[in-house]
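Page 42, continued from yesterday. The earlier attempt failed because a stray header line got pasted into the input along with the sequence. Redoing it now with the clean sequence only.
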Amino acid sequence: MPSLVAQDDGTPSEPVDPLSIKLLEMDLTATAKLFARHDLDDDGALSKSEYQRLKWASDEIRSFDLNRSGDLQSVEVTLKLAAERERAGIVQMDSILADRYTKRYDSNRDGKLQLKELENNTFSDQIESYDRNSDDELSADELIRGLAFERKFRDELGVKGCDQGGAMALINQGDLNGDRQLGGDELDAVGLDSATMKFDRNDNESLSVSELAEYLADRRMRMGMTPSDQLLARNVIRRGNPDGDGLVPANLFRQADTDPDLGRPDENGDGLLSLLEIESYLAKQRKLLGFDDESANRASILIARNDSNGDRKLSQSELTASGADRDSPLFPQKLSLIDQDGDAAIDLKELARFIQKTRRP
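This time it went through. Structure tokens are written below.
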């Protein structure tokens, strides 16, 4: 995986508490690679002369020299690299994607990506901005930082991984002239109409992968779907549509929980389901559930931590045993507020609904 060994902009970083840093797998990998190259005497530590070869100043590493030995042990180096990664806003998925794209596009296997190797990439239409030193190639560090920057920018627009992935799939499906964009008849071929052109931010009469991702995110949010809903709908179509007509037998889409108020997914009664029918059904289901993926994940974690008898619910005694205070959704006195079906226990949906209602923006 790509390693991170430099500050984001070359300026000194603010002092950090090493014990507050969350380590990721990529930090350990980066440390191992760094030691293999720079621990010249193989003593398991970087001496002053060794870390100075990395242009690390003594005052820069002082807060990470936990035992005040003047050298940096492996764990201390890991903490330093992790602090730099956090400062740059890089997460594990950025590293995974960088590794994946390098393997896919590095045609000459030199460990770097030439800009010409990326001319037909589907993951970014801003790839030239990744090249920070303007040498027409991307090092591992430049690639991972570019991916992190674009991810953070997409997050601000509400664009999630499912939207980016959907945009890439549309490009692969409909791009007839090889320009990695969709326009005119290409939009018709993938079922998009001219209304999507309002996302043509550069007015070139085509939609790039980032513009398509923004469109898909806007559409998903307007429908009221979460990323997990969107992925479920696409997976049903992908698994059950071998002939590529975009329709699957209605009996392939069966939900564990059904509600008569939702109606049937097969709205036109033809025995087949389109992506739009599945999405519409999931959007109605999501509205009825009353919570999003984040609240569901939090509820699942809390139940897993405190469900001592394995019934996937929390009883009064389990809430008491949790030791939760009044600010927690597990505060025992909140049982009657959260328990909507009156069974004297809190299930995942009830807890997720309460978390959603009380979650701070």
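Notes: The chain has 15 helices and eight strands.
Reminder to self: strip header lines before submitting.
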